[in-house]
Structures
1.
Amino acid sequence: MWRGLWTLVARAARGPRSPRPCTRQGSGAPAPGSGATIFALSSGQGRCGIAVIRTSGPASGQALRSLTAPRDLPPARKACLRLLSDPRSEEPLDHALVLWFPGPQSFTGEDCAEFYVHGGPAVVSGVLQALGSVPGLRPAEAGEFTRRAFAHGKLSLTEVEGLADLIHAETEAQRRQALRQLDGELSHLCRGWAETLTKALAHVEAYIDFGEDDNLEEGVLDQGGSAWGVGGGNIWHLSPQRPPYSLSFPPSTADSEVRELEVALGAHLRDARRGQRLRSGAHVVVAGPPNAGKSSLVNLLSRKPVSIVSPEPGTTRDVLETPVDLAGFPALLSDTAGLREGVGPVEQEGVRRAQKRLEQADLILAVLDASDLASASSCNFLDTVVIPAGAGSPNGSSQRLLLVLNKSDLLPAGGPDPSPDLPPHLLLSCLTGKGLDGFLEALRKELAALCGDPSTGPPLLTRARHQHHLQGCLDALGHYKQAKDLALAAEALRVARGHLTRITGGGGTEEILDIIFRDFCVGK
Amino acid sequence: MFSFRGCGRWVAASLTKQHHPSSRFSGDSAAPWTPHFDVVVIGGGHAGTEAAAAAARCGSRTLLLTHRVDTIGQMSCNPSFGGIGKGHLMREVDALDGLCCRICDQSGVHYKVLNRRKGPAVWGLRAQIDRKLYKQNMQKEILNTPLLTVQEGAVEDLILTEPEPEHTGKYRVSGVVLVDGSTVYAESVVLTTGTFLRGMIVIGLEMHPAGRLGDQPSIGLAQTLEKLGFVVGRLKTGTPPRIAKESINFSILNKQTPDNPSIPFSFINETVWIKPEDQLPCYLTHTNPQVDEIVLENLHLNCHVKETTRGPRYCPSIESKVLRFPNRIHQVWLEPEGMDSDLIYPQGLSVTLPAELQEKMITCIRGLEKAKMIQPGYGVQYDYLDPRQITPSLETHLVQRLFFAGQINGTTGYEEAAAQGVIAGINASLRVRHKPPFVISRTEGYIGVLIDDLTTLGTNEPYRMFTSRAEFRLSLRPDNADSRLTFRGYKEAGCVSQQRYERATWMKSSLEEGISVLKSIEFSSSKWKNLIPEASISSGKSLPLRALDVLKYEEVDIELLAKAVPEPLKEYTKCRELAERLKIEATYESVLFHQQQEIKEVQRDEALQLPKDLDYLTLRDVSLSREVREKLHFSRPQTIGAASRIPGVTPAAIINLLRFVKTTQQRQAAVDRLPKTDQRLCNTDKLEDRQL
């Protein structure tokens, strides 16, 4: 109810005259005066038994209804077991205890909901993402729950004592985290985008404020942009007769810059899953024909007996999952049933599950028996799984595959490569450990590429906040394109820039004026 | 000299030379003959006239002190009013029943709305104004304003007394001392000295003290202010030469014609005084490399350009244009100075070269080959006072009941001056009557943006309004200034006439009714398509469309809608202004919905007032860094909202301040329970409403 102050607080941290925080302009936005609804993971980050996710604000009830299967609210302040599912995909996320606290009898004094979910990072991030998709919800800023509680008189003065410290600490933590994340390419990207947008906005603002009043001069405009004077922007309605006092210069550069920015942002957002993977772990699926030694590999990688190993083909019948730390990257390792046809119904179901898991994998560890490459099941596996993945992915999926030939100890020592015709592969013996170092190094490279190694690869976008603001920016750019009224178009750019500057800082009006007066000779 | 025709009610009294060498003119025949006024306004420029008239409208006996009565309402620089952002300010001045819009509607010679194709939120009302007519009409208005007396005289010093204990400030002003040694007592004083504070005129290498060409500067007053401890800065500006009209070859230049019909500035006018066909054109010409050459070759003869004093970035002299953007051609607008004036104002040619070089430069320009320069361009350097030393009501922190408005606060432009003038005049009057100050928030108007920027951020170049400075630009439009400010002006300040109030009330209720009617009419998109084939309504949408949604389409107006749905919409085509405003409301409806929410949030912070007498430097119980303390001490923000906008004041500092306010409130509540209360404690009662 009193978010203004806190937005101002956040604004003060970034300097004067930052644009106001931008609410998503969706149809389902809450009524005016009610403020946004915030959500956050309230228990600590990382692996834990139970994680608590909280929302506060007028759309809390809506959020609860959207995520829980029975679409009615549970009784107030009573724990209820509910199946949580993603409102967009209907995909189940977790069985969770939910609590509904209608305001004002809640921690913050607003409508609140709490979700007690199983603590795996995948579940938590899934629920957070699902909440982010509910209209009117946004990730909470540092200390925002406490601040709201304070605002609604829910905290006594003594309880508030620590608030400034808390905000300071959390802002610091966020700043450090942001610095860590923003140091390097992501920061470079975001700043670049913010600069582009600021410049585009400055040119539109210059067009509004000085285009007719102060004789923005054509010669100077060539300097300011490359394509001034070329009509073709969608919002600049030029009449055949130029208005007096004006040298109209449709800022078509702004248009084209915005278009380019939209493409870049869109591409980056599609890429953003990489950031999520780092937190929840990449899905690594071990697959292959029966008795190739998949379970042995899983046990080797997880350094514990996860799967039962036997010389008998078809020992593993279900999908077995284990979280592991692979070469420094968190991963979810899945052991699957050997792929073969014409077996009993139980194993057949195992094969079906293995195939489903293969489709969802980020990285497939394809295991073949080096001594048994000519068998029908090996050939079939090569044809159906390895070759298609190796042929690249025409549909743009990012699925990767590492081909491992196990049981190298069974090959004659010093003999020729048993499989010169195969795609690139590694030789390994799970039994003796020979080839393990090479394999781990290859695995590290694959995971690094998959998760985006912060030190070498493209920057990570780990935080839902970033994604939220980038999406908000993209949405606003969409409004810019549709706007028929220049003031509305400029407003959309202001909103878009506001989102970006929430990530990078800055964003004052002075910045815009500086660009205007640098690029244009404004004067009477 | 100004005309006394038609001014029946002023009284010109000849006074005893020894004591009152200056004459006094009063618009109020019943004005008491004693040099004691409620409000004394020093300066008769655009800030001073608005301040004096506003104070008088509020019911205060007011004296306007000026060097010369015949320069009241003088337009010292450009012969035009309004523009983008500036037009917005004027509409707000008008909404508070200020003068400049009404005077412009009687004095323009070329009315033109700028930005017509860029959306109504950024339309800029503008007009070329006849200098002489403006001055005449303004003087007529000022001399006929009840309760307002005008006196000639230069103020040399302020009379200061002990401060009132219930307010902050080191001193209290209680009157002024004129150059001749006479005194005038006043309950409040408004200083609108323009460029006169230690004003210096610069042409070439020559500098001489002057507030304006031909007028003496105010030196004693500047020294007084400095001695009191005000932080003084220096700014510069300039004005172009004037050219004889008959010496210009207009036939080879681009001619620009005014709007037809003319759009009046004032809410209470349906039309302007002059028909479009009788208005004067403007002409456009350009500089050329020869001009650059003359400027560059003679930089050594140009001390104004060399000076380090900050000039505006957006209204540069031809010298700075040539220096900053070399090898360019710059526009020069040839603007009429008035109906029967034989002068032309070359806008864009502000210059401080020696006079003979100015003439040489002018004659290089196309159309001006044979031009005769009547008056050279010149630069002005003047003192201003850091505006962070004043409150949002424009009263100084240091001296109680002393108000500053206009260029003295570091602004430039007639409109910026007028806007501050109205606010200073209203507040000077309210202060005398012990009423709470009248402050406009930046969520309510450009006036609020202007004053908030000045008082929280200060300025180091002449501050000018742009629409890009207003974060709620779509809400703060020229068309709705009356809905935003007229009611507050009427109820809180008493500066709005009954007639204007009633008109604004009618307009507001008609708009609200119109919007709800437009919301209530719903048809399918295909039906709308049939009804209004001119509109490009996409028929794909399954949801019914409201008439308000259809009105959003660019090609649809109320007229067209009313043809499709005559009942009940016919009613709304009768008043042109109402029809236009409904269309504008529809255009921005969806965005305004969201903006309104943000505005409410900002307003909540603005409502959280900080105690005025906080001594931030020594304040204990609040953990604030030295840097933050100094910033707060200098700007003295009045609300949490303003504090949070000061650069360098951290979120944690804001929380600490809030906590302090809360503790203070509890302590004072305890004190309140004691039998004796005083004014200061009463002021904090408002804190109770704050849900902290």
2.
Amino acid sequence: MAGVGFQRLAKALAKGKGSGLSALVSGCRAASGATKDSLPGAYPKTPEERAAAAKKYNLRVEDYEPYPDNGEGFGDYPKLQDRSQHERDPWYKWDHPDLRRNWGEPMHWNFDMYLRTRVDTSPSPVPWSTMWKQLFGFVGFMLFMFYMGEKFPSYQPIAPKQYPYNNLYLEKGGDPAKAPEEVKNYEI
Amino acid sequence: MADYREAPLATRPKTLDPNEYFNLSPDYRRAEEERAALRANLKRQYQLQLNNPHRTELIEDPALTRWVYARANPYPHFRPTKKTSLLGVMFGVVPLFRPLCLLFALCFTDKFNHGPKCLMFIRY
């Protein structure tokens, strides 16, 4: 490839249509990677544009479905299934095994979210709605009960504490010579 | 394989999809074959480049280039609609005023202001 380019360069210089530099520039073209029409573009409006976009993204025309055109910046990028890389077959010989992806395969818009280290869309043991209901049911119930407990507190019935020895007359600094008043804390 | 049940936390593999065995309509089969042809073509291109002994550079993936380009350039396709403007205001304008509103609510309204000790609970 590089050899061919060099030959063409020499030929262009030899022909010399204009000055040296312009001959160089017109004679050989660098084989750059992505051309303008292989990059994503605007939302496809006509069926021909749709077919061209499907071919560009290596999808069947029937499979190609762009994101709806509501100004959110998607352009003609295809809308693929929201399945994470967790769900792909672990035993198939992918070209990139850690990403579970083949070369040239169209990537999901949120591919970096659906990696194997991040979001997992595998089926859950119980439907999501059941899980949400259980979680919010329990949390809501507990919150409600705590609120009711605040509104209507209930305590054990209590009375002032009763001490022996005439309500601890001597311990509380009562005069030992004087006779304390009799405190009866019981009934028989 | 007709009595296969899904493993608890895994999706059903494509090879065990009942459509592969029982859906014999020509349209479905043709669609599957077209998809397989596209995949095989891409595989062939990749394998040719991978096993080329004269290759010295990295194999460039045009799908990756397109993805990066699409993610990095959404603004040419942006249009201000109700939804996009709402999202823009919610995530771009409201967070700028949240601390100020919090300060206002804490210090200057009667609900929270218990005398001069208004900000004393905020300690470093």
